[in-house]
């Protein structure tokens, strides 16, 4: 999503820059607005990726495994969620952008209106002498996630040329509304299943405390990879003539 900012925030450059990337004048007093408009124009390319630049797509975002453990020994809940796929990151809205091209820094405030996820869960609940277990599918959605992203870059020498490389992006999420649903809880028990889903949604912040750092890390890694795939194709002089 943000990987193209470097290219679209630059002065007019050589024909080596792909035509689908709209560049902005470096000395434009409204360069931040130009960058925001350019990102919007490029959004369709970002969803599935840009094969000619070896840039990966945003959708779906894979989170891998998420582990959750809560409570004392006599009333403990443990859960593991695998193969988590998130859809919706490409629908981001840029609410604010502050760029510093001299220092290769970009600070974004984004809104992620809706993120839908699915995966496989395994749950184990111990309450005194009662032990309940279940496994199945987990689905859910997060709404109105606020997202702060900081991008910093530095120059690297390769032969006679210099290239811009971004440090790992810093991503911070602030969570909005959420809903979670688990199938086949306790082998499909008609009472325990719905009751547990209600309890989980009433205490969804517990789950969000575990998934948010994983989501932040995954988004940061993806954005960093996308940015560096692009900047590795063009010298610093080509990007900043």
Helix content: 25-40%
Helix vs. strand class:
alpha+beta
Order of helices and strands: HHEEEEEEEEHHH
Beta-strand share of residues = 35-45%
Instruction: Please describe the biggest sheet, giving its number of strands, its sense, and whether it closes into a barrel.
Output: 8 strands, antiparallel
Q: Using the coordinates above, name the CATH class.
A: Alpha Beta
What is the count of structural domains? 1
Total of DSSP H or I helical runs spanning 4+ residues: 5
Which radius of gyration do the C-alpha atoms yield?
22 Å
Uncertain residue ranges: 6-15
CATH fold call: Bactericidal permeability-increasing protein, domain 1
First-residue to last-residue Cα separation: 24 Å
| Record field, number of beta strands | 8
GO cellular component, one term: extracellular space
InterPro entries: Haemolymph_juvenile_hormone-bd, To_sf
Keywords: Biological rhythms, Signal
Organism: Papilio xuthus
């Amino acid at each position: 999503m943000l990987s193209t900012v470097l290219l679209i925030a630059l002065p007019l450059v050589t024909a080596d820059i792909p035509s689908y990337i709209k560049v902005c004048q470096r000395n434009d007093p409204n360069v931040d607005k130009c960058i925001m408009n350019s990102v919007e124009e490029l959004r369709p390319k970002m969803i599935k990726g840009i094969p000619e630049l070896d840039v990966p797509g945003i959708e779906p975002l894979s989170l891998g495994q998420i582990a959750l453990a809560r409570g004392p020994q006599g009333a403990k809940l443990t859960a593991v969620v695998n193969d988590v796929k998130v859809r919706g990151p490409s629908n981001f809205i840029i609410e604010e952008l502050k760029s510093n091209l001299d220092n290769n820094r970009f600070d974004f405030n984004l809104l992620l209106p809706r993120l839908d996820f699915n995966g496989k869960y395994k749950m184990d609940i111990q309450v005194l002498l009662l032990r309940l277990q279940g496994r199945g599918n987990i689905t859910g959605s997060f709404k109105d996630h606020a997202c702060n992203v900081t991008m910093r870059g530095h120059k690297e020498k390769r032969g006679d040329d210099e290239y811009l490389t971004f440090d790992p992006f810093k991503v911070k999420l602030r969570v909005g509304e959420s809903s979670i649903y688990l199938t086949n809880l306790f082998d499909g028990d008609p009472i325990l299943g719905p009751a547990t889903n209600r309890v989980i949604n009433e205490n969804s912040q517990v789950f969000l405390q575990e998934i948010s750092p994983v989501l932040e890390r995954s988004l940061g890694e993806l954005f960093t990879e996308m940015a560096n795939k692009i900047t590795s194709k063009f010298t610093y002089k080509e990007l900043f003539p």
